[in-house]
Known about the structure:
Number of domains: 1
Transmembrane segments: 6-27, 39-58, 78-100
Low-confidence stretches: none
Membrane topology: Multi-pass membrane protein
GO cellular component, one term: proton-transporting two-sector ATPase complex, proton-transporting domain
Main location: membrane
Domain V-ATPase proteolipid subunit C-like: 41-99
Amino acid sequence: AFPGTQGIYGLLVGFWVLMKTGILGGSPMALTLDQGWQIFFACIPVGVVGFFSGWYQGKTAAAAIGLAARNPEGIGKAIVMVTMVETYAVFSLLASLLLFNGINL
């Protein structure tokens, strides 16, 4: 279930952009080219970091399962390692939302 959260974070940012630009639930606002690029670059952190952290979190989770199979007492350490990778996805979500909120629409 852990690597799936990166997709949820991307979906959250996507809906945030659609709502703030009026595409979802309102009349779409006319954006300048500069505003379009700013929105694009504001979404990059959650896209790129979400992809790589999801990839490595899957690998970490697979290794954690192997560790738990060999040593059931080490399950706590395994969960902590998987959660540490998730932290970077949360940071990228925060970065994208802060960058997007800084755009004058």
